[in-house]
Design goal:
522 residues; eleven-stranded mixed sheet; two-stranded antiparallel sheet; 16 helices; globular
């Protein structure tokens, strides 16, 4: 986590109470929290009183699978660009400069730094997997001499960082050229890209519609063709949702695979950092560059490095995909259901084995994720809530206020349930399959006008529907890859996601690469 923010105000250490919540917001927030706690306690009633609370990372590691066999032949295709990427960086900067400010994905663009970096790579003796590739960063990562803004007023006076985030160090070591920082939802707390201070993220396919969030600018920048690769974060779907709604590919790694040192914290036991890119292959190369143990982040696991390119050119007959039976309704539009069914047929026609499985209880998993997020995010922001609550937009302050009302008992029960529910999910959906296919969102991107308004409770219910398919996966800590799956009648992108076993990103990437080579009849 970033340690560049300090709050010397003595009130920062006081206890938060109901009096810190605006009176108009208190009744429905209390009702929401009561509903969440009831769901937790009902689920926890199944736990044996003597059951040991299993560490979450241990549960993930225990459920690892054997890695895919190494490729026997075939050269790994180089995705890096020639001559250090100078021409590519110049072209990207020109595209960005031509975009009207109100539609831009970018918070800051640094042409001089980017061109200096690209020119330095021209004569570099070593070429990393991302050599010369221009990229953008969600505005939440420390960079030496710069202050990440987190899409929030609370960072207006932030001190410049003394050191790069680990992720930034590793991307640059792989040869990436950072062009600047990208729009994000305030404090990464909106699935739509909402930001009351910066303006809302807009969809490059239809500017009246939302980009998805909270990695809004990352989805926008890749979809608009500004850069082929951008880096975001995913705590409840914040990589996968903008990827799906903007029509690009997004990868949420397994929990604890990528170091979060120097990144904005939100809910540390669910925060994941991941790429959005033009295809699954480039997502894989980015993950290979970013992943690995880090002494600055003791939670980050020490695993064998990913094998770049091992996911390319695999036979469809080597894979199986679990598919639940779905019905259209408030959580799934008929067009999204049609796209989901069409994707299933494309995989089957290519030779992938399809396994029908029961629909997992994503509603419960999402509620447990919401409890976890409520307590952890409020803890992260407690000092600012106690001293400067006015710096938050109303939607964000309301979401942070849930943690003031939530009991520690509900939070601890949610953590006790985590490994048992992970094992149940694996047994019920992935025991006979390499991945589970789900929609990424209920349908196409909502209109921005429908994501704002005075009725905050109604908006929060709609946001809950938007992240229904993604949020519970963060609670389980599993990897998820969202890939494009066509468009709806309005021309807005649709996406499906593949959920894999812990630390089995190579198989997900293989399925993603395979799907992206299979023709879509539409």
């Amino acid at each position: 986590m970033s340690t560049e923010s300090r709050n010397p105000n003595p009130d920062a250490g006081r206890k938060l109470t109901e009096s810190d919540i605006p009176p108009d917001d208190l009744p429905d927030l209390r009702s929401t929290v009561n509903d969440l706690e009831a769901a937790v306690f009902a689920a926890a009633a199944e736990l044996d009183i003597a059951a040991v609370h299993e560490p979450f990372v241990g549960g993930l590691l225990a459920l690892q699978r054997e890695p895919m066999p190494a490729r026997q032949s075939g050269a790994v295709r180089d995705r890096s660009v020639g001559a250090g990427g100078v021409a590519e960086v110049e072209a990207a900067l020109k595209r960005i400069a031509s975009t009207p400010a109100e539609h831009s994905a970018w918070v800051s663009v640094e042409p001089e730094d980017a061109l200096r970096r690209a020119n330095a790579l021209v004569n570099a003796s070593a070429r990393g997997w991302l050599h010369g590739i221009p990229i953008g960063l969600k505005d939440m990562f420390d960079r030496r001499g710069k202050a990440a803004r987190w899409g929030a007023r609370l960072r207006d006076d932030a001190v410049p960082a003394a050191r790069h985030a680990t992720l930034v160090e590793r991307l640059e070591a792989a040869g990436a050229v950072i062009l600047g920082t990208l729009h994000m939802a305030e404090c990464a707390m909106s699935p739509t890209g909402l930001n009351e201070h910066l303006g809302h993220g807009s969809n490059p396919h239809h500017r009246a519609h939302a980009s998805g969030g909270s990695s809004s600018g990352a989805g926008m920048a890749v979809a608009a063709g500004d850069v082929p690769l951008a880096i975001g974060s995913d705590t409840g779907g914040s990589v996968r949702l903008p990827a799906a709604l903007c029509g690009v590919t997004g990868l949420k790694p397994t929990q604890f695979r990528v170091s979060t040192a120097g990144a904005m914290p939100l809910s540390p036991s669910m925060d994941c950092l991941g790429p959005l890119a033009v295809d699954a292959d480039l997502c894989g190369l980015a993950l290979a560059a970013m992943a690995g143990a880090d002494p600055r982040d003791p939670a980050c696991v020490d695993l064998p490095p990913l094998r770049p390119g091992t996911w390319r050119g695999r036979s469809a007959r080597d894979f199986s995909v679990a598919v639940p039976r779905l019905e259209a309704g408030s959580l799934l539009t008929p067009e999204m259901l049609e796209a989901f069914t069409r994707t299933r047929h494309r995989l089957a026609d290519a030779g992938v084995r399809i396994v029908e499985v029961p629909m997992p209880d994503l509603a419960l998993l999402g509620q447990l994720a919401s409890v976890t997020l409520a307590i952890e995010s409020t803890s992260v922001h407690r000092a600012v809530l106690a001293t400067q609550p006015e710096v938050y937009g109303r939607q964000v302050r309301r979401r942070l206020s849930r943690g003031i009302l939530m009991s520690g008992l509900a939070y601890y029960d949610a953590q006790r349930l985590r490994v048992p529910l992970l094992r149940r999910f694996m047994a019920q959906t992935l025991s006979d399959a390499d991945a589970l296919m789900l929609p990424t969102s209920p349908g196409g991107a909502p209109r921005i006008a429908d994501t704002v308004g005075p009725d905050q409770h109604r908006l929060e219910q709609e946001f809950g529907k938007l992240s229904f398919w993604t949020r519970g996966i963060n609670y389980l800590g599993l990897p998820g890859l969202s890939v494009p799956a066509g468009v709806n009648a309005a021309g807005l992108p649709l996406g499906v996601q593949f959920i894999g076993a812990p630390y089995d990103e190579e198989r997900l990437l293989s399925i993603g690469c395979l799907l992206q080579t299979v023709p879509d009849p539409t």
